[in-house]
Design a protein that fits this description.
By secondary structure, the protein is of the alpha/beta class. The protein has 2 domains: 7-222, Vaccinia Virus protein VP39 (Rossmann fold, 3-Layer(aba) Sandwich), CATH 3.40.50; 232-295, Helicase, Ruva Protein, domain 3 (Orthogonal Bundle). The protein is built from 12 helices and 11 strands. It has a 7-stranded mixed sheet, with helices on both faces. It has a two-stranded antiparallel sheet with strand order 1-10. Strands 5-6 form a two-stranded antiparallel ribbon. Helix 4 links the parallel strand 3 and strand 4. The termini are far apart. The relative contact order is 0.11.
């Protein structure tokens, strides 16, 4: 079957196969061969790598990934798209297409998918003398990008790298500096665990259907946590309190969230070397960790 190279060709292909597309669900397909290649190459793939792709879509990105990695597990929720992608990927013997939803709920990944990914990683590790890595490469559907990235960053999968195409707004949040409007709970949680690099901005016109916003290719790599929180749950609760009440000063945001009595909170904040009257959104991740340790 001929590979579509333009939005018009992709539109025709979908109509012939009875596939209806809903851009509001994040079904925006990239057909630009150079950009597809850029995404795959940015993951620095080798035959030692097992790749998880979320949102198989047409299978065009999957083809670029499969040509470079040891094994690809690609997840698609739409049966029609999975069937179409299967035809485009017929020439690859290192691809598994799984019909599933990546999310079990907003706060958790689908355990069937994570089990399948770990199974693929274990199998490939045995065939490569234990050298296999799990990488995640995907044009993420817009609606799941935030919960997916947050869950994976917090340890849902033992990944070595993520290269993702996401909404520009999400990318800006992940890379935001303290004190900016983009800086938030997702920023703090992901940056506690990982480094985030913005690689390339992708304009709407290279997608079909055309989204209303630009996208950004990002790279997320886990790093050793130099000063881990003594109580990660306390750190997480502190971050949630700060950003749920970001217009309040730090003391009031923590008190309003029920993290303690004001007098005790005041002393803890001061002992962490932080001014109680400042806004919590101005704290670095390291300062949040230090404060969470005092509160814990």
């Amino acid at each position: 079957m001929q590979i579509p190279k333009t939005a018009r060709e992709l539109n025709t292909l979908f109509r012939r196969n009875g596939i209806r597309v809903d851009g509001k669900k994040g079904q925006n397909f990239l057909v630009d061969a150079n950009l597809l290649r850029f995404v795959a190459e940015s993951a620095e793939l080798t035959r030692d790598d097992v790749v998880l792709e979320v949102g198989t879509g047409t299978g065009l990105l999957a083809r670029e990934i499969a040509a470079r990695c040891g094994h690809l597990l690609t997840i698609e929720i739409d049966r029609g798209l999975a069937s179409l992608a299967e035809r485009f990927l017929a020439g690859f013997d290192n691809v598994t297409i799984m019909l599933a939803d990546i999310l079990a709920k907003k706060s958790a990944l689908n355990p069937d998918v994570t089990a399948k990914a770990r199974e693929a990683l274990d199998a490939h590790s045995k065939s490569t003398s234990g050298e296999a890595n799990l990488k995640i490469v995907s044009n993420l559907p817009y609606g799941i990008s935030t919960p997916f990235i947050g869950n994976v960053a917090e340890g849902a999968l033992p990944f070595a790298m993520m290269v993702l195409m996401v909404q520009e707004e999400v990318a800006d949040r992940l890379a935001a500096a303290p004190g900016t409007k983009e800086y938030g709970f997702l920023t703090a949680i992901v940056r506690y665990h990982c480094d985030v690099v913005l690689l390339k901005t992708i304009p709407p016109q290279v997608f079909w259907p055309r989204p209303e916003v630009s996208s950004t290719v990002i790279k997320i790599v886990p790093h050793p946590v130099e000063t881990p929180a003594k109580d990660y749950a306390a750190f997480r609760a502190l971050c949630r309190a700060i950003f749920n009440h970001r217009r309040k000063n730090l003391l009031n945001s923590l008190a309003h969230s029920g993290l303690g009595e004001k007098a005790a909170l005041f002393d803890a904040i001061r002992s962490a070397g932080i001014e109680p009257g400042m806004r919590g959104e101005n704290l670095s991740v390291e300062e949040m960790v230090a404060l969470a340790d005092k509160l814990a």
